[in-house]
Amino acid sequence: MTTAIHSEQINEIAKALSNAQGEFPDIPKSKTVMVNSREGKPSYSYKYADLADIITAVRSVLQKSGLAVSQVVTGGHTGNLVTTILMHESGQFLRSEIAIDKYSNMQQLGSALTYIRRYAYCGILGIQADEDDDAQNLNGSKSNKQQNQKTPPSSGKEAPPANQAQQENPTPKKENKSLEDKLADTKAWIEGVLEDENINQKDAIKKLTNCRNLWKGLYQEFSKANKVALYQDGLTQFDRALGALGHTEETDEEDAF
Fold first, then answer.
1. What is the mean pLDDT of residues 19-44?
2. CB contact at 8 A, 173 and 154
3. 49 by DSSP, 3-state: which?
4. Does the residue 141 lie in any domain?
5. What is the four-CA torsion angle of 234, 238, 243, 246, rounded to 10 degrees?
6. How many domains does the chain fold into?
7. What is the predicted pLDDT for the residue at 131?
8. What are the residues facing 32 on neighbouring strands?
9. Spatial separation of the C-alpha atoms in residues 219 and 57, rounded to whole Å
10. Does 114 lie in the same domain as 12?
């Protein structure tokens, strides 16, 4: 979940930010991602700027405009909070807070924090640090790193095996998987999306939202097996992941169980 806060007055910081945005240089996109498309679709690559490149590129303009950005990560029993503050010399400020689910694996936590810090920094300054690859994504293209992730649940009665992870919208496949295994695979897939630094925030939200809807299609199967608690656990995992990306889902009748 994302919380936006600002000082009582923002006229000075708004003016300074507007001037700074007009002077920001082109951000060097030094990182390249190779993307393998589905069969019959051309492969392509796109570039993006990492957080260090972004900070270096805008630092002098921010200083000239009387602006500064600070990011603080705090932890608690339920997870972590990334606070990004854009401060102006007048004392006015803009602040965003993004909650991140708790991770037991430090590498996964580090990847999630890197992802959130980068997009929070760009978001508060109004910077685009990626090439626009939305058109390619709509054609079903996927990065190499994404292809190594586990597959989300299908809308049929059975979830596809892990070796079908290269499919964006997997088709139902019959196999003897327990509901517990489906939940475990889904959790692993969600974590893979969150820690993938090569997917932009918009596409991550889209993937998670689509697969959350697929998961909801499994409700009757969980209900018949008297395992609604497992179903609800899966929904909770999706909602926490979407919340970490600043997106919330409306609760419907089935979600309330």
1. 75
2. yes
3. coil
4. no
5. -170
6. 2
7. 59
8. 47
9. 49
10. yes
Distance CA 95, CA 5 (A): 5
Dist. CA 84–CA 72, nearest whole Å = 7
Domain shared by 237 and 168, yes or no: yes
Q: Which one-letter amino acid corresponds to residue 135? A: A
Q: Half-sphere exposure of 155 toward its Cβ, with a 13 Å CA cutoff?
A: 9
Among 217, 156, 147, smallest CA distance to 189 is for 147
216, 235 in Cβ contact below 8 A?
yes
Mean pLDDT of 67-94: 90
pLDDT at 236: 80
- Residue 112 within a domain: yes
Domain assignment of residue 243, given as a range: 148-256
- CB proximity list for 32: less than 8 A, separation 6 or greater: 45, 46, 47
Domain boundary among 63, 92, 125: 125
Q: What is the pLDDT of residues 116-171, one digit of tens each?
A: 898 889 989 988 876 554 434 434 444 444 444 444 554 444 444 444 444 444 43
Within a domain: 132: no
